[in-house]
Amino acid sequence: MSGNAGAPLRVAWLGHTSAALGGGMATYSREVVSRLRQRGHRVTFFQHELRESEDGGPEAEAGTEADEAVYLESLPVAGRLVLSSGRARRRLHERLERRDFDVVHASFWFSTLDFDLPRACRRAGVPLVATFHIAFDQRLSVWGGITSATYRLYAPTLAACDRVIVFGASQRDVLVHLGVPADGLRILPNGVDVDTYRPGPSDWKARLEASLLLVYMGRIDSEKNVDVLLRAFLDCEPPADVKLVVMGGGGERRRLQRQYRDPRVVFTGHVADASTRIDVLRAADAFLLPSSVEGLSLSMLEAMACGTATVATDVGVDGDALRGAGIVLDPRGLEEQLRLAIRELMEMPWLAGRLGEMARRRVEERYSLERNVDALIAIYRELLP
Q1: How many CB atoms lie within 10 A of CB 87?
Q2: Calpha distance 217→247 (Å, rounded)
Q3: Whole-angstrom Cα distance, residue 288 to residue 90?
Q4: Strands across the sheet with 103-108, in order?
Q5: Which residues are within 8 A (CB) of 280 and not within 5 positions of it... i.e. 6 or more apart?
Q6: What value does the mean pLDDT of the chain take?
Q7: d(Cα 30, Cα 306) in Å, to the nearest integer?
Q8: SS3 for the chain, per residue?
Q9: For residue 247, what are the β-bridge partners?
Q10: How high is the pLDDT of residue 81?
């Protein structure tokens, strides 16, 4: 697929750019919007951000027509819920009603604008595509119950969209069960720029004086089970030159950093610079993601693309992406399985290299950003008159 057949598209994109608000969804928005623009499509990026101009009002639209940003006045609440002002809602609706977009694409993640958007797009006569990022797990658990309630909340809104992008068959089946029409659902996994995220040299192991380097990268919140990972790692009694890097910020970081004061555990906080994150992943022998719920983790795909052996729980679509190319853990009995995986990596250092090669090959075959954007443009063109 060329991805560029036909006239350039005019896309209104709604999403996050702040890692604090959006996490992996912010990366998804930035990278896909950038790639669409590189292919000659005009994208107006409506961003959930608190930004003010010098006079104290919302920041004005910036950039050229083909590289336009519109900042929607928003307030983050309770971590990742986004409350948008009435002024932001009016501004969005006014732009849609100018009818200068071929398609609207929204990344749905706990914004109050999400639920009114299908009605606004119908009124403006513009088709709506939604990517549904909300993490899930179908097992009976506290986090599974919380995410199940969120899926029920969103189902009527998703049913009113023209197309809904999900990351795998299990997520699609959950939404169909909740009444979202199957013919409007499209399976399109996240994609990674495999030219940027690739194996390469790194001095991080030398800087940390590590013979074996394990890495967690992502939000440090309770559903990510970083505390379980830390306990399992230290229970294995690793020698002084086996290190675990915990990279990311979140509600649990300060508590865990105070609790686990051990020279074998290195907390970096949030690392905004992508080249630094890539250097750490290239140096790592293994990447570990012990979450209770996920959608399809971009951090995991980035680690796999860097040729890092990957260990992750079988939640969301992560298990489907990793199975046969890494170590997949059942979230039940998680701590014991983490200890076993860490001991295997310590006792069989050759295993990491072999798993890393398999992980890289899996991403190249199924999860490249180019493949993702090709399929996305095809979905847009389905909806054109």
Answers
A1: 12
A2: 5
A3: 43
A4: 81-84, 67-77, 42-49, 10-15, 103-108, 128-132, 163-166, 185-187
A5: 202, 204, 215, 217, 245, 247, 268, 271
A6: 88
A7: 20
A8: CCCCCCCCCEEEEEECCCHHHHCHHHHHHHHHHHHHHHCCCEEEEEEEECCECCCCCECCCECCCCEEEEEEEEEEECCCEEEECHHHHHHHHHHHHCCCCCEEEEEECCECCHHHHHHHHHHHCCCEEEEECCCECCCCCHHHHHHHHHHHHHHHHHHCCCEEEECCHHHHHHHHHCCCCHHHEEECCCCECCCCCCCCCCCHHHHCCCCEEEEEECCCCHHHCHHHHHHHHHHCCCCCCEEEEEECCCCCHHHHHHHCCCCCEEEEECCCCHHHHHHHHHHCCEEEECCCCECCCHHHHHHHHCCCEEEEECCCCHHHHHCCCCEEECCCCHHHHHHHHHHHHHHCCHHHHHHHHHHHHHHHHHCEHHHHHHHHHHHHHHCCC
A9: 217, 269
A10: 66
What dihedral do alpha carbons 246, 249, 250, 254 form, nearest 10°? 70
Tokens (6 digits) for 285: 């022998």
| Residues paired with residue 129 on neighbouring β-strands, in sequence order | 105, 163
> What's the confidence (pLDDT) of residue 73?
74
Give me the pLDDT at residue 57, please.
Answer: 34
Distance, CA of 368 to chain centre: 14
Q: pLDDT tens for residues 255-268?
A: 999 999 999 999 99
Q: State residue 309's pLDDT score.
A: 98
**Tokens linked to 96:** 């849609």
CA distance 48 to 74: 6
Q: What is this structure's pTM?
A: 0.88
Low-confidence ranges of the chain (pLDDT < 50): 1-3, 51-66
Copy the structure tokens of residue 309.
């052996």
Residue with tokens 């790639």: 35
Residue 129 tokens read as 């595509």
Give the tens place of pLDDT for each residue, 196-239: 999 999 999 999 999 999 999 999 999 999 999 999 999 999 99
Q: How far is CA 204 from the centre of its chain?
A: 25
